[in-house]
Structure prediction request, 337 residues.
Amino acid sequence: MTSSMPPGAGAPVQYEFADVGERWEAAMRGGDFEEAWRQTDRIEHVRRARAAAGAFTWTPEYLHWSGAAFHDRHVLVRCNHGLGDTLQFIRFVPLLRERARRVTVMAQPELVPLLSNAGVFGLIRNGWTEEPPPFDVEIEVMELAYAFRCTPATLPAHVPYLPPDRFRARAAASIAPRAEALRVGLLWASSDWDTSRSIPIEMLAPLGAVQGARYFALQQGRRADDWRRAAFPIEPLSSATREITALAAAMLDLDLIVTVDAMVAHLAGALARPVWVLLQEHPDWRWMERRPDSPWYPTMRLFRQPRTGDWRSVAESVASSLHACAAARLSEARRYR
Prediction:
């Protein structure tokens, strides 16, 4: 994810709206989405009135929707933020299709092969290589939550909303079952956009004490070789999971994904894979506050720092929970021998 900014909040429109971003974030963290949308309204209603009068105050990339109705229109959905943002909010497109005559999604090139397998909308690449067809209404994918005024009770949380059967044929042979081992995928570094979300590989040492767990590295980029410095064996999958469709296939062969706040967390959640997300003391607004779960992803569990920078406690908590899972897996395997 490359942005934690909410649609319509936090941008420098006028000084009288300087507090909207803070109020928006506080409401979202507390689960009061209705209040968050009211804060968004404070900016959007003024912005749209000024835009209609020809007096644009600012044009940040994440604002596209004019408030126009979707019914019986061709709607263009732009994906201008991070890959994780797109995967989280693409769930709203089926709702949009129920209202619109036609929907076209302009997605990041890296996600086009993955989303094309979903088969629920027209798809083109974001960037300079493809121009969108003529459309009636445009909206950024993260604005869809605002457009539908979703709440924790009404947001579309049915998973998987990326159909796993489309990826099963590409599953990685290197993750084949071995005895009763619990197969765990690991991702310890987020993108360079926010390195505070990342965990030094040495901090994951408590995971090495878990009997019956087999670890696979899902890391890409400059931190992909960190597994070599780990205090316990990790089998690298970086060369086999460079494409996101291949990564999705690998996840289907894993029993659990343990990851920091990164695109992998959203992909695992969208595929309905069991996923544990390791979070800072004050994480991004979408993970809310004090919850061990997420209304966005039913198969997700959250592990939070008790204090800023305390990844060791997080790793110890994860190791304790992994020990229980591995023991249960072993017990079940022995029962059916």
Q: What stands out?
A: The first strand starts at residue 74 and ends at 78. The CA atoms of residues 114 and 244 lie 7 Å apart. Residues 165-335 form a domain with the Rossmann fold fold (CATH 3.40.50.2000). Residues 1-5, 7-15 have pLDDT under 50 and may be disordered.
